[in-house]
């Protein structure tokens, strides 16, 4: 039961942290780094900035005078607690357990007798409770508190912190129930949290409240704001939403909560509406990386096909929210394309945010950096949307804490089960265990994916009865093959490939084609017309100026102006010395007084091969410029 | 002396509203509409919203309780007063004179004994004076007050309102002089105003204060803000500025003031710095329309070549500010390229903002509208950056009032004089009079420009002595000719063409080539790669969806998705039935689940010709989509 999402119905059921072990590799290393570096880093920053201390100040009657941070800062402590809880569940760390308990106790101590808990509202000198639902984030904070409680309950069981969480949820239900305040929070999050708490506790009341919040929204209950009511999804009811719009994280959290509500209440119409909106959003409002949100203004989705790479907001939290939503839709429908979206977003948004040392983060994830980023001052808080180099912490610091809980719970995305068998959704070395109607099964997965496309699955323990082993073949993996034991490889089309009942000791090998490939954009995406990207497996590649400097292109005075490089797409990108390379020539551009007039000359000069970098690893070598989409010669 | 800018030195001197008459045509019609519709419209809205009433409330002690509008709303009344003053100077309207006097009296009544005048600050319950220089706009408001006073003094002479203005300026000099507050205002404007007041009054003190404001800025005197100190140009001193950055209107007003200060103090280094920054900004940070400001966030310039057409903020006021700056540089240097920039910006930004009825306005001027704009609610105030259909007024309503003063003073941009003769800088039918050392001269200009390229200049009165008649040949006008009397046309290269001493009755004909032409972007402008625009004379053309609907393209389900159209650039755009047309075909795009993958197919289907619309006239036929840059087949 140790997974963040446990629907009581749907096509697939998740396998949790006690069912799936990731042993090293791309994601295992990141989980280890999360535990060793990111969680302590975030813990220290929350203390240092006084955001954790707000709870102590509340207990000691020092609010509002001593309050630090923005109105939503409580939520950062909750997201960290959730991350710690999953990490404890994953590893059983005794040291972390002690830190969790101490931190949770400080939070619990600030809870008021009626269950209310927030350091920003309700005291003399503060705004009254729920007096600013548009921007106050009170229910948003409760949502993250509850998600932390769900993680704790699933990894540890009932304790004082879970008791705090249940009392907080009861307070919310009383305050906003059928006889209470009929409004919603400006920032969705409570929906997904209450739905999951209902799953943990079996209390229908929480589900009803989650449903109420989903249904109330979209009818203008929050009033207008300068950014427009679409900003917080109060312009159109969820079940009438055709495509996601407004603030991306808000839209995606809300949609995830709506899936939960739809599944638990058997509301097929609501589920279909969210699925259709997700489909259209993926087809028209999503970056190649899986990133969502094209506007810095309002941190919001653009309109269809408005996907400028240099303006991509693509907030890390929106990536996490997209993973949450697509994972829920995968469980609900069993359709591989949702797992494809999870994979793309994990490798190219979630993995891009943290620095190699786990102590710096991108808040936004641009696909095109025009000017070299500034060196980050190590001990300085950054503005949120500064996408130059990864920063240690932000004035609005949702992303680092959100990453802690995502990395700690990554195991939950790897595999699913159904009555028929086990489905491997993501590929990482490790073990997968499940209890099927046919009996228990255990798999050992061996792979260097995504560095290599070979995935070897050994059946360590086979069920007594009939069962299926199902492997996802990503949509990009045209030409994949699957081989059983020593059998000949057979073609495996994108979607799922199923092997019926391999016995103990049986080995299934999935081979995914990993040659780098050109990827062209839909011609309706104006911002990347005449440009092309390179992908290798699930990894989006990028052209970074530091790699251009290593090639002799200085005769054209290229400097950081990557815009003058042209690639030729009539030959495939090549792999050389383990690096993906593309052939480039340079366009010479004369400077003038006015940048409009004659057509530019053709690309000139000798063709050279330039290394690309994995997009998730860019800007690890100092200030640079970068582009995912490269002009075609 | 009736022009907004009267430097005491420089290459050229301006001719003012009493020297230049515009009789109908493109600009004459707009001047008439400004007087008949826009000025009364703005007047009524300022009353209706209570912004004018703030002055009455100040007098009656009803502030802050009864205050309406934002912190800078006083400035809108001042800009309107300036517009009225120029209009009175232009036409001598008795009715407008009465309205001006009444409105000015209400403003003057609110002035405090020490000269301070602002309805937002300094009273019990309001913030103290100058307690919020970052955002308070107090000196910005004083600047517009002073500019209104300058207009009044030049068109009418000293009166009670001018007295108010002088007392306000004296207050500013005392408050911010050598022994006073050493900071600056978050929004430049006071610089240009004080410099001009010094020119009007001969008082050196105002010039010194203007210079002090220019010099202080750029040293972090305002403190940091979330948008960064570049937002209000407090990061780099003006004389070290290499290219304009930050909030476009702020940057351009400041630069205009710096030119004034440089000229009046003989500071060649400062003048050269502003000229160089202007040159680089025109070459790298300016839209084809002349529009400036690529970011909605911070209403600011982007970096070099960051010019997305669909995100162009291109604020109307930034266009006006660019005209102000380029006009000053023209007067200072006598270089035709600054007059080119004025022309481009007037026709394609300033003329774009007002609706055909003079009662609606664009605040921002996008070059690509992706979704049809919403119908404007006639009596509703719009958010400032809503660029769909022209709106009657805005919550931040600088642009409509700024237009009133610009249209009323347009005559001042038409012609200049030097000791050698007269220079026609802009082409409009009417009369131009000047006093030269050689004697008085009067010209009659006959033209339908820009509908037609023929400009006929008749010398009605010739000076006694030697003189030159100089005509600007725009940079785009390759192939222009000039003919004197009945002589053969001679080639006239872009820049200036000079005719020596035509006598009374002599006629000089300039012929500018008006065939529509393809215009290609610099290859470093990523956002319009693979696209092309059409210009005809000084007019930028646009493809509007309402014109596509009139062509039989329905078989491809084109709808409003103009993005699927491709033009062929191997033939020139044609003129048919007086309309500019381009040949288009359509790209068929299949909808899929993911917009990245295979390259799209070639353009298909029958080629059709589609009318273009003058960019300044788009969206006059109801909601539509529009693009200036069209994808190439």
TrEMBL record, chains A, B:
Pfam families: Beta-AFase-like_GH127_cat (PF07944), Glyco_hydro127C (PF20737), Glyco_hydro127M (PF20736). GO terms for biological process: carbohydrate metabolic process. Residues 422-514 form the Non-reducing end beta-L-arabinofuranosidase-like GH127 middle domain. SUPFAM superfamilies: Six-hairpin glycosidases. Residues 517-631 form the Non-reducing end beta-L-arabinofuranosidase-like GH127 C-terminal domain. Residues 19-411 form the Non-reducing end beta-L-arabinofuranosidase-like GH127 catalytic domain. Coiled coil: none annotated. This is Glycoside hydrolase family 127 protein. It comes from the Bacteria.
């Amino acid at each position: 039961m140790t997974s963040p999402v446990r629907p009581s119905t749907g096509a697939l059921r998740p396998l949790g942290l006690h069912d799936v072990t990731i042993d090293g590799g791309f994601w295992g290393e990141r989980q280890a780094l999360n535990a060793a570096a990111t969680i302590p880093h975030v813990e220290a920053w929350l203390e240092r900035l006084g955001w954790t201390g707000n709870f102590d100040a509340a207990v000691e009657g020092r609010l509002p005078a001593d309050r630090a941070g923005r109105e939503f800062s409580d939520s950062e402590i909750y997201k960290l607690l959730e991350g710690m809880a999953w990490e404890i569940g994953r590893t059983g760390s005794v040291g972390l357990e002690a830190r969790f308990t101490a931190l949770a106790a400080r939070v619990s101590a600030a809870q008021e007798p009626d269950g209310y808990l927030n350091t920003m509202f309700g005291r003399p000198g503060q705004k009254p409770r729920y007096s600013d639902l548009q921007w106050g984030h009170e229910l948003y904070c409760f949502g993250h508190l509850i998600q932390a409680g769900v993680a704790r309950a699933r990894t540890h069981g009932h304790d004082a912190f879970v008791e705090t969480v249940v009392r907080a949820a009861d307070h919310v239900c009383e305050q906003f129930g059928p006889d209470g305040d009929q409004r919603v929070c400006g920032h969705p999050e409570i929906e997904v949290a209450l739905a999951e708490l209902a799953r943990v506790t079996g209390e229908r009341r929480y589900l009803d409240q989650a449903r109420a919040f989903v249904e109330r929204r979209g009818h203008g209950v929050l009033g207008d704001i300068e950014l427009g009511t679409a900003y917080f999804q109060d312009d159109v009811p969820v079940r009438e939403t055709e495509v996601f719009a407004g603030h991306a994280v808000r839209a995606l959290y809300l949609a995830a909560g709506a899936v939960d509500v739809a599944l638990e209440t058997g509301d097929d119409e609501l589920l279909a509406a969210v699925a259709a909106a997700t489909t259209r959003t993926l087809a028209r409002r999503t970056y190649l990386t899986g990133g969502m949100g094209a506007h810095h203004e309002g941190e919001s989705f653009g309109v269809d096909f408005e996907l400028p790479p240099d303006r991509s907001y693509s907030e890390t939290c929106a990536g996490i929210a997209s993973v949450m939503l697509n994972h829920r839709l995968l469980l609900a429908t069993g359709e591989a394309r949702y797992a494809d979206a999870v994979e793309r977003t994990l490798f190219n948004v979630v993995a891009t945010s943290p620095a190699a040392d786990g102590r710096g983060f991108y808040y936004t994830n641009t696909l095109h950096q025009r000017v070299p980023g500034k060196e980050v001052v190590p001990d300085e808080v950054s503005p949120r949307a500064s996408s130059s180099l990864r920063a240690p912490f932000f004035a609005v610091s949702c992303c680092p804490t959100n990453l802690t809980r995502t990395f700690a719970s990554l195991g939950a995305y790897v595999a699913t089960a159904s009555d028929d068998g086990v489905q491997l959704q993501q590929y990482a070395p490790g073990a997968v265990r499940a209890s099927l109607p046919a009996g228990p099964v255990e798999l050992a997965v061996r792979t260097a994916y995504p560095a290599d496309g070979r995935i070897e699955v050994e059946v360590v323990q086979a069920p007594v009865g009939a069962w299926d082993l199902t492997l996802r073949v990503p949509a990009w993996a045209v030409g994949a093959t699957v081989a059983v034991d020593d059998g000949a490889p057979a073609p495996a089309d994108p979607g799922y490939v199923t092997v019926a009942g391999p016995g103990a000791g049986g080995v299934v090998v999935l081979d995914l084609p990993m040659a780098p490939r050109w990827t062209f954009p839909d011609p309706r995406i104006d911002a990347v017309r005449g440009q092309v990207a390179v992908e290798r497996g699930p990894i989006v590649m990028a052209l970074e100026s530091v790699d251009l400097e290593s090639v002799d292109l200085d005769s054209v005075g290229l400097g950081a102006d990557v815009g003058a490089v042209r690639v030729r797409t009539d030959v495939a990108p090549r792999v050389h010395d383990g690096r993906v390379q593309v052939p480039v020539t340079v366009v010479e551009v004369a400077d003038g007084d006015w940048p409009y007039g004659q057509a530019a000359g053709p690309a000139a000069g000798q063709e050279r091969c330039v290394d690309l970098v994995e997009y998730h690893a860019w800007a690890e070598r100092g200030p640079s410029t970068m582009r995912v989409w490269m002009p075609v010669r």
